[in-house]
Amino acid sequence: MAEACPCGSGRAYAACCGPLHAGAPAADAEALMRSRYSAYARGDAGYLLRSWHPATRPARLDLDDGARPVWLGLKVLGHDPAGPDAAEVEFVARYRIGGGSAVRMRERSRFVREDGRWYYLDAIG
Ligand SMILES: [Zn+2]
After folding, report:
1. Average pLDDT of the chain?
2. What share of residues in the chain are helix, strand, coil (percent, to 5)?
3. Are the C-beta atoms of residues 80 and 30 closer than 8 Å to each other?
4. Which residues surround ligand 1, an ion (CB under 5 A)?
5. pLDDT in tens, 7-54
6. Which residues make Cβ contacts (< 8 Å) with residue 55, sequence separation at least 6?
7. Which domains, and CATH codes, for the chain?
8. How far is ligand 1, taken at its centre, from the CA of residue 21, in Å?
9. Ligand 1: distance of its center to the CA of 59 in Å?
10. Are 17 and 10 in contact (CB under 8 A)?
11. Going by C-beta distance under 8 Å and a sequence separation of 6 or more, which residues neighbour residue 7?
């Protein structure tokens, strides 16, 4: 059976976030957001940096720095286009670190599109 995509879409990884991780452009901001969650779940720091807007991208991203969270699930609450090349996505991600209890993280992220590709810009709460 095909590997289920970590983003919780119900689709196979190879038909969901996999192609994006391999270099295909995201169809919209929500697809990019899902692919970034999957990259966190799979420990793909390179993809997280590539899909981060250069204006806010950290110099490096060490996912093995300290206790690495186990990502438990993603729920997209809203996808609000803000023009042709900007959008906001609100979501809840759950994770757990070590033997701790599950943490629920709610975030509203901003995304921008440049040269046909979506990038994560920042979180606004
Ligand atoms: Zn996916």
Report:
1. 94
2. 20, 35, 40
3. no
4. 5, 7, 9, 16-17, 34, 38
5. 999 999 999 999 999 999 999 999 999 999 999 999 999 999 999 999
6. 121
7. 13-123 (3.10.450.50)
8. 10
9. 26
10. no
11. 16, 17, 34, 35, 37, 38, 41, 74
- Find the 47 Cα to ligand 1 centroid distance in Å: 14
- Distance (angstroms) between ligand 1 centre and the Cα of 68 equals 20
How far away, in angstroms, is 36 Cα from ligand 1 center? 9
CB 80 within 8 A of CB 91: no
Q: Distance, CA 99 to ligand 1 centroid (Å)? A: 26
Single-letter amino acid code for the residue at 71: W
- Give the per-residue SS3 of 30-53: HHHHHHHHHHHHHCCHHHHHHCEC
CA 48 / ligand 1 centre spacing (Å): 14
SS3 55: coil
